[in-house]
Structures are given as structure tokens and as C-alpha cells.
Amino acid sequence: MAAVAGGVLAKAVTRSGGLGILGGGYGDKSWISHEMGIVGAARVGIGLITWAMADGVLGAVLEHEPAAVWLAFGDPSPHIPAIHASGAVVICQVNDVDEASEAADAGVDVIVAQGSEAGGHGRSGRSLFGLVRGISAAVPEVALVAAGGVNDQRDYEAVRELGAAGVALGTAFYATEEALDVPEAKQRLVDARGDDTLRCTVYDVVRGPEWPTQYDGRCVRTEFTDTWVGREDELRAVVEPFLARYAEAVEQSDMSLRVVWAGEGLDSIDAITPAADIVQRFPRVMGIGM
Ligand SMILES: Cc1cc2nc3c(=O)[nH]c(=O)nc-3n(C[C@H](O)[C@H](O)[C@H](O)COP(=O)(O)O)c2cc1C
Questions:
Q1: Beta bridge partners of 218
Q2: 289: pLDDT strictly greater than 80
Q3: Which protein residue has the closest C-alpha to ligand 1 atom 4?
């Protein structure tokens, strides 16, 4: 989770028996370096948004000797040799079966099937159950992880029946003490329900950068989404004052305007807890990161 999963959260997840992934997002090297300093000796992965990777970012990431590099939203193949040469595992998040087959052919070690229920960026289209079934049939030889609305052991058992070996969680870890965000944002995760989330692109217009057109993101609805979703071209035409206004809204924690990325699994979130409490909901998958 770009910028939300910092060193404190990634380390807490690994220390409690999962595999923490630092949210390297758009590849800010100094942020990654600072947060990996907090991680210290704990074994964590580092996530990067593939289409946004600038020259030199992967090299800088690998200097931190992550256990894994999580690539999502773009072609992973140019980056796989360097990641493997470093000894790290390549995790690749995908949104459809063809993308999973291409990732498998390219040599990734783990495929994450991201259903459209998921919080944060992704693609409208495939929801998790059908996607897991489709990918596990198409590429049975690659370890498959399911992401999107997963909260506890029951979700794990369900996706395991469909062919997944593990689960990845975002929104549930956002609602933890260790996640990097203001209390007002985390309170939205507690107060809002799955019905209050929607997939849209309006935040990419006012926050930047604009994403490739096949991607959108699931977030909690706000006055801003109520006003602008469906009017994206109009928003682009008047975007200039919004850029500063949005930055100000983040500064002031104005929750009527600023984004809180979150998935449909919000129905199960009723408190901000330590990350270890989330990991301990999965007694059968604990122990991989330690
Ligand atoms: C706040 C937030 C930020 C995210 N940032 C990223 C990201 O930078 N890269 C990525 O691959 N996925 C990102 N995701 C998506 C997660 O990788 C994952 O697919 C998703 O959280 C799983 O669904 P869930 O939120 O219902 O648990 C993000 C999700 C959230 C909630």
C-alpha cells in the first residue's frame, strides 16, 4: 500500500507471522530508504507500481535486500532478471487471467489475483472468486495469492478451495495502529461500509499522476466523488485550482475531499487494532515472514 504501509507496519506484519510489504508505490527512493531503516533486520518485501518505475529505482530498492519485490500494474518482465539475481522473490499482482499467464511465462514466483473488490488501484472487471478459479486453472504451476475483501480465516478457507495458496490484505492493514495515515482517515475505515466504496479515477485527476486508462481505484465515497464521478473530462478542464485545494485538504484532513482508498471488506472493520491482531486471524497461514 503506497505510502500507507511504511516500515512500522511492514515490520509488524512480518514479526507477527505474515510477510510485510513496504508500499514503495511510485518509487520515492528517499522515502523507501527511510522506511527500510525502520524495518531494520526484519524480512519484508517492497512494492512498486510497475508502469511508474523510473530508471534506477529497482536498483535502489534491491540495495535494501528485500525478501520479495511486489510488482503491480504493468509488465513485470523487464525487471525479473535483476530481482532474481538479487535473490529476492518476484510477486506480481494481476487483474485478469491473460495477465496471469503472461506473468507466469515471464517467470514470476508468485501471482496475486486482485479482485475488483479490493481497495486501492486496480481494474474494474473481475471479482475475486472467478478470477482465482480462472488463474489457478490456467497457471497451476505458480503459487497463487488472493487479494480483495479478505479479512479472516474464513475468507482464506474459501479462496483456498478455489485454488489459492495464500491471501494478501490491504484495507484490513490500513485500519491498524501501525499504518501511516491520520486518525481521521482511519476512522473513515471504521465508519464506512463496503456499500460506501466505489471504483473511480477522479482522485488520479486531482492528485496526479494520471494512471493508464485501464486502471481505476476503489475508495470511500466523499462529497468530492459524489460531485465529480461521471464528469471526469469536465474535472480535467477545471483541474488547476483543485490541485492546490486537494493538497490543502490532505494537510487539513478534510475528509469531504481527500481520498481514503478502501475495499468492500470494510463491512468487517469496526476498530483500529494492532497489525498483529489481523495476522493472528489466520492461524493456518502464519509463519511465512519470520
Ligand atoms: C491504501 C491502499 C493502497 C494501495 N496501494 C497499492 C500499491 O501501491 N500497489 C499495489 O500493488 N496495490 C496497492 N493496493 C492494493 C493492494 O495491493 C491489494 O490488492 C488490496 O488492498 C487487496 O484488497 P483489500 O484492500 O480488500 O484487502 C493498495 C490498497 C490500499 C487499500
A1: 120, 199
A2: no
A3: 1
